[in-house]
Every structure is written in structure tokens, then in C-alpha cells.
Amino acid sequence: MTVKDLLKNPDRKFNADELAALAAEFRLESWDVLHQRGTGHWGGSASAMELTTSLYFNRLNIRTKEPRWEDRDRFILSKGHASMNLYTVLAHRGFFSAESLPTFRTLGSKLQGHPTMNKVPGVDMSTGALGHGLSIGLGMAMAAKLSGKDYWTYVMTGEGCLNEGQSWEALMCAAKYKPRRLVLMVDYNKVQLDGTEDQIMPMEPLRDKLASFGWNVCPQSFDGNNTADILKSFEWMDKDEVWPKAVIYDTIKGKGVSFTEGKNTWHGPKIDDDSFNKGMPELKADLEKKEARL
Amino acid sequence: MSIAMRDAFGNKLLELGATHPELVVLDADVSSSTKSKAFGTKYPDRFFNVGVAEANLADMANGLATCGYHAVVNAFSIFLSLKSTDQIRNVSAYNDLPVVFAGAYGGLSDSFDGASHQAIEDIAIMRSIPGMQVIVPSDARQAELALEYALTQKGPVYIRLNRNEMPDLPEPKDFGSANAILLREGKDLTIAANGITASFAVKAAEMLASQGIEAEVFSVPFVKPLCMDVLGKSIKKTGKLLTVEEHVLDGGFASAICEKMMMGDLRPKFDAITVKGFAESGPYIDLLAKYGISAENIVARAKALVG
Q: B258, CA 20 to 30 Å: which among A50, A257, B69, B206?
């Protein structure tokens, strides 16, 4: 069994091993396209790959042939610089052809540098400027309440996104309205653009901060690069009706290519030929290992 | 004397709440001032008072707007244009979302609170954003019409409202055409007045008439889109144009008109009355006069233009 076999029917619910293999494939493809284009953000795309893959291939109630279906679950990638991640996942999920992925960031392409909702099917909100996602998600969640709908709204931030003051305005406000099925997912890779999180803007104690703002924060941290762990976090989301909810995922920036892992210098640099050639065997080996478990 | 624009706007919101189930209203802890409170009292489920947090305010409206709701966002003009700019530009406008930004206390109308609360750059900021429409009503009735118009639009609209009771103008015939609204016919010069400066221009025209100068006066609420059909004909006829606005020169109403004229074939003798820099605290009408917006100053500048 290969990832190619899995992707023949992307509409079913995938298990942890399958999700891990898919994420390995998507990570490899992202590395490839980012190298081809010489522009884009590898570090944050790689750190969140298991998270977005698990959402789109296990969790979200969506219709790829009807991207604006009004009852669909919403996902906002507030850390919009991980656009390569989102585009790869959306394409393979069936929203558009994966053959268009190499057009990323080229003139005339729908695949803009940062996600753009009116150009790319499946993108629920344009992002790029940090800090917007949670406020927008709160609006979507309130719309669900007003219209009596049951859809979920997931907002993914990194810690850089949480540096923005607006994120804390939204955290306050969401705790006031407590809409059902609003979930904040923190891709906590602890590395920003200019340095590590503790060098640039220490966020600890993050769980206590979120809880003190009135959120139902999962007491457990999950390994956001481990799909079995991510599926456990989904179980926690379903556990009770105390809203809004937040889950912190420990992740590794630049995950999958050893010399990029945990490095702020790999936030968004050009992937040169030498780096590409060194990284590719690692990504291929990881994919083969995960396909072997299928 | 009319009711204040903010009262007319608040009443209209309340009225439209009954016929527009998709209408949601948001405010940033100033609903007593913006007058959105009445809507909130009658329709609490569709009203969100998010506290003093204008960035979250605008984006929460944007989120609602992606889900079938038409949001009206209320806050002071200066704070909407300065503290919600990123949200308006990167989310409302970039995604062409149906959100109305109702800027209360526009221009110098929050007169006693001083320069920190007076919006004199909001038009420049808003009209520079692609896809934004910018409307500056001249009286309470135009404020109502602006809201009705904005709710028919599929993209974002900024409406600048005034705080105080100002004179009524005649009912406009075709507000939604975005054309200038003729208030008085004349042949010697054209006066294009933006926002509440229109009533001062009408008074000035009466004073000019007594001195033998016939000014053609327009209220021009639509800064973007700015339709020059009606105004252009008048400018061609008189060959002289005086603009009046409660805003700085840079990027404002006069600036928009000049862009249109220079891109076309209009080259009138021209002058612009604008607010020159930060103002101060004081009674509104006196403050306006000190910073150039008075019938007397319009008369003086018009006479200089006519020569």
C-alpha cells in the first residue's frame, strides 16, 4: 500500500498510520515545490503538516465539490505563511488538482504567497498578516449560533500569531460569548522568524495564560507531529461542552529535515540545491517507513 | 435643525433590523454614543458589544460576513480608520466582504474631546483601500440613505457620520447614483461640499448672491466611487471650483476630485478649503470656523476665486 493508493479515495476517514504516511508525502512535496520556486515558508509548513493532514483527512466535515457549502466545518490557518502546507493538503484532499502546486507564487497562479479565499477552493479565509484568525473564527462561530448550525470552526495559530495584540482581544471576546465548537489549535514549535520564542517573545506559561482568559484549555500537551496523538486530541475536543476550547501541540519547526529542525533560519529562506539534495533522502526514507506500516 | 446623523443612523438600523434578518451590528463599547444601542436592545442576539478592541471588532464582523450576514460595525471614525485598518484592508476589502463600517464622530465633530478623537485622515485612509466605497453624508437623511445603499452592496462600505445636530438639506433625488447632489444653481463658480460642510456652503451662496455672485452648490457624499457626471458639467459651465471638506488636503475629498479632473479634461480655476493639521478642543461650530469651515470663509475664498 502506498500513499498514492490511499489518495484514490480521499473522502473517507483515515487512521493514524495512514495520516502519518499522507503527511510524510505532503511534507516531501512541499519541500520539492518550495525548492522549485525558491520562495515560501518551509519551517512552519513542516511543523503543522500532521495537524492539517489530520484535520482534513480525519476530522473536518467538508465537501470538496461544494467548497462553500454553508454547513461545512471551517478551518482558518491564521499562520498564513504555512500556505504551502495548506495548498498541498487541500489539493490532495480533492479541492483542486495537485498538478497546480508547482505554480505556487508564480505570476497568474491562484496559489498566492499566502492563502486567498476567493482564488483557492477550500480556503475558508485569506490570511497572511498575523493575528486575524481567532477574531474571524469567533465571527464564524457566532454565525453558527445565530443560524442554528452545528459546524465547527478551527483556528490554527503559531506562537508568532499569538504575539499579536489582536489575538488577545479575540481570546477575551470568545470567552465572553463562549460559542460552541470554536477550537484554537496552537502549532507550538517555539521558534519564530528572528530566533527562538523565548528569545523573541516568551509565551510561557501559555496554557495558564489561555486558561486565565477564560478558555477551556486541554491540560495535556500533544505531540503535533504524531498523528496518533493528534487523534487523541480530537477525542478531547468531543469530550464535553465547555467552550471555547484550546489545544496546544508541541511541534518541531522544519520537522522532517534534520538540519532544518528547530532552526529559526529555516523560517522562510530559499531552499538551495545543496540543501534540497541533502534533505530529500531523509524525507523519502520517512515516507517509505510510514508507507511500510500501511 | 435636523436630528444628529448618529441618531438617524441608529434609528434606521433599528428599523432595518425588522426587515433584514441578515443584519448584525457590532460596537466597541461606544453604543450609547454611536446609537447602535437601540438595535442591541431590540435584537440582542444580533448585536455584539466587543469592548474597546477595534481590531477584533472588525474581524469578528468579517467572520460573520463570510457566513451570510451583513455586518454593520460601529466605532469612532478615528479608531476605525486607524485601529481597524489592517482588518479592513486585509480581510474586508481583500475578500470583498459585505461589511459596513460606520465611523461615528467624524471630522471635528467630537469637538470637545480634542485632536485625539477627531478624524481628519479617515477619508484618505479608507479611499486608498482597493474595493472600499466611501460615503460622507451631508445630513441625517443622507446618513439613512447611505446605510440603505451600503446594505445593497456585496463589498465593504465606509460611512463617515457626524456627532452633532446639523441643518437638514433637501431630500436627494437619486442618492445611490453616487452623483453630486445639486443644492443651488449658479453660474459664477461651483462649490462642491463634502459632508456637513454642505449646509455652510448653502449659507455662503446666499451671502454671495447678495454680493452679486451666483454660486452653484453641491453636496457630494460619495467620495468613492466619485461620479463626476453632474459635477463635471457644472465645472465646465462655471470654470471655477471650490471644494470644502472636514479633512486634511492630503488624500481627501479635494484630492479625489483633482485626480478625476486631471485624468479628464477639467481644468477649472481651483481652491480647496480643508482642515490644516491637528485641531483642538472647543464648541463645534466655533472650532469649525477657526479651522476654516464657515460660511464666511467660504464666501471669502469664493470671492478670491471669482476675482
A: B206
B22, B54, B214, B280: which one is catalytic?
B54
Share of chain A above pLDDT 70, in %: 100
Q: Is A90 exposed, middle or buried (0-12, 13-18, 19+ CB in 10 A)?
A: buried
Nearest to A135 among B46, B60, B65 (CB): B60
B54 tagged catalytic: yes
Using alpha carbons, list the distances in angstroms from residue A5 to A21, A56, A100, A288.
11, 17, 20, 14
Structural domain ending residue among the three candidates B135, B160, B185:
B160
Contacting residues of B for A169, CB less than 8 Å apart = 50-51, 53, 55-56
Q: Do B63 and A142 touch (CB under 8 A)?
A: yes
Listed residue (A7, A36, A44, A6) closest to A256, CA to CA: A44
Do B207 and B269 share a domain, yes or no? yes
Which of B84, B102, B93, B123 has the alpha carbon at shortest distance from B13?
Answer: B102
The answer to whether A118 faces chain B, any CB pair under 8 Å, is: yes
Residues in chain B closer than 8 A to A176 (CB atoms): 50-51
Residues spanned by the domain of B250? 175-306
Q: Is B33 on the interface with A (CB under 8 A)?
A: no
Of the candidates B242, B231, B233, B186, the one whose C-alpha atom is nearest the C-alpha of residue B209 is: B186
Instruction: Look at residue B1 in the predicted model and tell me its pLDDT.
Output: 54
Do A219 and A208 meet the contact criterion of CB atoms below 8 Å apart?
no
Tell which residue, A104, A106, A92, A107, has the closest CA to residue A49: A92
Q: From the CA of B52, how many Å to the nearest CA of chain A?
A: 9
Residues B152-202 pLDDT 10s: 999 999 999 999 999 999 999 999 999 999 999 999 999 999 999 999 999
Q: Where are the domains of chain A?
A: 13-292
Mean pLDDT by 10 residues, chain B (307 residues): 89 97 97 95 98 98 98 98 98 98 98 98 98 98 98 98 96 94 98 98 98 98 97 98 98 98 97 98 98 98 97
Q: Which of B51, B62, B96 sits opposite A173 (nearest CB)?
A: B51
Nearest to A42 by CA among A273, A277, A269, A281: A269
- B62 close to A (CB below 8 A): yes
- Judge contact between A93 and A81, C-beta under 8 A: no
Grid coordinates representing A15 are 487512521
Question: Which of the residues A173, A176, A184 would you substitute to probe the B interface, choosing the one with the greatest number of B C-beta atoms within 10 Å?
Answer: A173
Last residue of a domain, one of B160, B185, B217: B160
**What does the block give as the cell for B285?**
461650530
CATH topology of domain A13-292: Rossmann fold (3.40.50)
